[in-house]
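Protocol step 4 of 5: obtain the predicted structure for the target chain.
Materials: sequence only (see below). No template structures provided, no constraints applied. The aim of this step is simply to have a reference model before the mutagenesis design in step 5. Sequence pasted as it appears in the construct record:
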Amino acid sequence: MQSRLFLLMLITAITGSVLPIQAGINARLGKVSGGPVIAAFISFLVGTVFLAVYLFISRRHSFQWNGIQAAPLWLFAGGLIGAFYVAAITFIVPTLGTALTFALIIAGQLLAAMVIDHYGWLGMSVHEISAGRIAGAVLLITGVILIQKY
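Step 4 output (structure tokens):
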């Protein structure tokens, strides 16, 4: 069990490490393509094509049309959030820099995640806000300030 947990944590860290790379690539793409929204569109188009090819080749996944049709509309907001995120990051990274941008992103993610966990929103299990979690958030925000200042 511990090795599985460690592997998941490693995969998560690696996944996080590619986001600044993606932001830098998209920022450069935005400069040559006509702006951050164009770059975000191209990024999502490439990702969509890749996923379509993967689904076609793998044949391991099938659409659950009944579930999709019955889903509440808000479940499709993930695509809107993703498009906003990629376009915003493409615009912001060249100005704030990668380190400060992602320090702020991580701080915002942590604060939102703590609220989601505390109330169990979006079907998540409840993990109440504790003194230790607040201390961790304060340390992270302190890190954001240090990154911005130095």
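Step 4 remarks: The two ends are 41 Å apart (CA to CA). The mean pLDDT is 93.
Proceed to step 5.
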